[in-house]
Amino acid sequence: MLKKQSFHSFKGILAVHAVLLLAPTFSLAADQIVGKRPSLPSPGKAQFLRQDYGEIEEIAYQPSAVKWRLPNGNVLTFVAIRDNRGEVTALAFAELRRAKNRGIASVPDLAGAKPHDIFNALSKPGTVTPGFLKGHRSDTTRSRPQGWARELVLSPDAIKDVVVGNPQLTCPELGWSWSEFREDILSKDLPLSFLSEGDGPQSKPKHWRETASGQYRLYGNVHDVPEFYGAVLYCSRDTLEHTDTSDPRVVWRVGPIGEAPSTVTWDFLQDLGDQLTFTFDAEAENVPTSIVGKGNSVSLHIEFPEQGDKFYIGAAWSKISDTLTVSQ
């Protein structure tokens, strides 16, 4: 039986001490995290890394967040971003799609869907909808029965079920092409974007920082974003160094500039082809226009990969200015 996982937040200061400009809208830098924050589970603890999900389904409700583990091992996270008055100012959604499984993107009618639409499409009839989602639904949701897309997502991908698990293969050989990943990022019709193919500590060392303990980290953030979509796909494994207790971890955080951001979601990418996507929307229905997009930052952390690991990394966003900073 799986245990419910809590949502973490931290207080800390990110001190950037070197910056490299890569494109008109994107820069990479080394950073140092100082200050004190609650820690996520450390690497090397196998109980956090490898679990047989079987057919277990769990939904953990909190006042501003829901974490939902589907029977196939995919994980969906819904989070309400609130201001200091407790009002919902934005919604965030994340999907961990396990390598052998279909995901939200496999259902064309869910392209561009709002979080409430996704919850309604995949939940069993009678499942309680989180209160913070009820005011943010589209006309499509009102016209479709609860659970209409559930079987489409839960049905296995027969082709990938055969090839996944072979650490010698890479993303294209496993059925995830760079062109499809790129198209997914750019299909969001957001004006600014960043794309990096085969990104890893060895292949693109300027994007990564090696800590004193020999661990590699990548960190990125963008400020004042009303809309954001990002994805990290695990594409190539360092088979010489990798063990079952050294899976890379991806963390997405969001919060007001100048305050400690909240961890919206985090998880380990266990198999090549595992992908963690993140969507942030401050232009949801019923969000006052006076606070849309003001002061929100989105950040990405990739932690504990081996030196030869590689990822597809992509992001698209909208904002008034075009400066995005990404660092280790």
Report on the structure:
By secondary structure, the chain is mainly beta. The chain has one domain. It is built from seven helices and 16 strands. Strands 1, 2, 8, 9, 11, 12, 14 and 16 form an eight-stranded mixed sheet that branches. Strands 3-4-5-6-13-10-15-7 form an eight-stranded antiparallel sheet, with helices on one face. It is globular. The N terminus is likely disordered.
Total count of helical runs of at least 4 residues:
7
Average residue pLDDT: 75
Largest sheet: 8 strands, mixed
Q: How many strands in all?
A: 16
The overall number of domains is: 1
**Distance separating the two termini:** 35 Å
How much strand? 35-45%
Rg over CA atoms, rounded to whole Å, is 19 Å
Q: List segments where confidence is low: pLDDT < 50 over at least 5 consecutive residues.
A: 1-53, 286-293
Quickly give the structural class: mainly beta
Spell the H/E element sequence.
EEHEEEEHHHHHHEEEEEEEEEE
Helix content: 10-25%
Summarize the structure.
The chain has helices at 46-49, 115-122, 139-143, 150-154, 158-163, 171-174, 178-186, and strands at residues 13-23, 26-34, 58-62, 65-69, 75-82, 88-97, 192-199, 209-210, 216-223, 227-236, 249-256, 262-268, 275-281, 296-303, 310-318, 324-327. With 328 residues, it is mainly beta.
List the helices and strands and how they pair.
Layout: E1 13-23, E2 26-34, H1 46-49, E3 58-62, E4 65-69, E5 75-82, E6 88-97, H2 115-122, H3 139-143, H4 150-154, H5 158-163, H6 171-174, H7 178-186, E7 192-199, E8 209-210, E9 216-223, E10 227-236, E11 249-256, E12 262-268, E13 275-281, E14 296-303, E15 310-318, E16 324-327
Parallel strand pairs: 2-16
Antiparallel strand pairs: 1-2, 3-4, 4-5, 5-6, 6-13, 7-15, 8-9, 9-14, 9-16, 10-13, 10-15, 11-12, 11-14
